[in-house]
Amino acid sequence: MxxxxxxxxxxxxxxxxxxxxxxxxxxxAVLLQRFEFQVCTARSAAEALEMTAVMPPVLVVTSQEVLxxxxxxxxxxxxxxxxxxxxxxxxxxxxxxxxxxxxxxEAGVAACLDKPVQVETLYTAVQAAVSKPRxxxxxxxxxxxxxxxxxxxxxxxxxxxxxxxxxxxxxxLKPAAKGTRLxxxxxxxxxxxxxxxxxxxxxxxxxxxFKEPGMGLExxxxxxxxxxxxxxxxxxxITQGVAPSSSGRAVLPEGx
Amino acid sequence: xxxxxxxxxxxxxxxxxxxxxxxSDANSLYYESMLLQRLQYHICSSKTAAxxxxxxxxxxxxxxxxxxxxxxxxxxxxxxxxxxDPRLLRVPVVVLTQDGDLYGERQCLDAxxxxxxxxxxxxxxxxxxxxxxxxxTPRHNIRINTRLPVMVNEKPLNCGEGxxxxxxxxxxxxxxxLHPSAKNxxxxxxxxxxxxxVAALAEVLYSHAAGEGPFGExxxxxxxxxxxSPDQxxxxxxxxxxITRGIKPL
Lengths: 256, 250
What we know:
Chain A is α/β, with parallel strands linked by helices and 256 residues long. Chain A has seven helices and 14 strands. Chain A is 29% helix and 30% strand.
C-alpha cells in the first residue's frame, strides 16, 4: 500500500502519549495509531515535555501516573508553556478518584477517562478534543450482507465495507435510491443480525467517477442486543492484539 | 473516516507491524518515529535502552530501530541484553550510526545488526532497510499516493473529474482514468512537478477498465522505460519531500 500524502493539517495529527505503565502506554499508543494519529510515546513528564518542545502536538494523552512526577504536574507545565498552553490534554485516571478528577477539570483538561479506557470512550474524547466530533467509531470491514432478502455477491466484492453501531456503507453496483427503506441482514460472528435501514446517499456505477459504488445506510430499527453485538464486534476489531495492564493479557502477540 | 482493521498476524500489511524506536535525542526520536508511521508501521518510541527493553518485553516488536549511542547504553549493549530474552533473540535491529563511524558500523554488523544507517537517516534508506529486515517480499522504492495532473499521449487528463496520477514512485505510476491503454502499450507521459515538466515513456503493466473488477479503480499501472536522469532525480526528491514534510530533523 503506498503512503498517503495528505494535506498539512492531516499530516500533523501528532499526539504525545504519556504513561508510567509500559503496558498501558503501548495499548493507548497503538489504539491512537489505529485511529490514524501519528504518535510518540513517553514514560515521564520530562520526556513528554522534551517531545512537545520538538513539535507541539495536537493532543496530549497522559496517565495520572507518569514516571518522574504526576500527570497533574505535566498538565500544569504544559499550560505554562506558550507553545503548548492551548494543546488539549486527555487524562487517564484511576476509576473512582473523584478528587483528582476534579483537580484535572479545574486545570482545564479536555477529558478525564477512567483506566482501563474503553475504545469508544477514548475515540469520542479524542474526536471531541481535536476535530469535528464524530460520536461513533467506524471501521473498515468486509461483512457479507443481504439486501431485501438477496445475498450480495461477496465474491464480486459486494459487501458492507464500513460499519458503525448506527449504520454502514454497502459496496454494490446496484445501490437503492436515497430515502429508500431497506431490510438488511448482516452476517456477524456466525449470527444473523437483521436491521431496518434508510439510504442516506448513494453512488451509482461511474457516478462521481472514482467513488466506490454503493450506498450509505442509517439503521432505523435494530434490537438493542444486536446493536450491542455490532458494538462488541467493532471493539474487538479495533483492540485486536492489544490490551491494557489490568486485563492481565500480553499487549501484542509475538510475531504480529 | 473509517478506521482500518489490522489484519491477522502474519499478514504482509505493514499496518499490522509493531516497531520499537529508541533514541535519546528527542528531535531524532520524533523524526524517526514519524517517518516510520508515514511508511505505515505502528511504533512505540523510547528514549533509553532500559525503557526499550521493558517495552519490548511487554510488546514484542517485529523490528527495533535504535540509535548507536543511548543515554544509558550503547546499541551493542542493548543488542546483547535483548539476546538474553528468548522472545527477543530473533528480533532484527537496525542501528542509526554517526556519520563516518565505520568502525562502529562494523561492530554493530558483527554483533548481528540487520543494517546500519547514517544519521540523519534518509527516508529511502530507512524504508529499504526495514523492508529487507522484515518483509517477505521487500520493496526497494517508496510509493506515495498523490493527485498529480498528467498528460497521456500529449493530451491532459480530466483532473477536475478525478483523472490523475494517483500513485507515484521513481520507477512508475498508476494513472486513474476511464480510458486506460491496453497492457504492454507504450505511452508517452508528461507531468508537471513543482513547475517543471517531467517527460517519460512508460509501458502499461496492467489496466482496469471502468466496471472491470468490478471495484478496481479504473486506470492503468505504468513502468517508466525511458526517463531522463534529472527527471527521475526530481521524482525521487519530490517523493522524499512529501514523505518528510514537516518532520525534517534539525
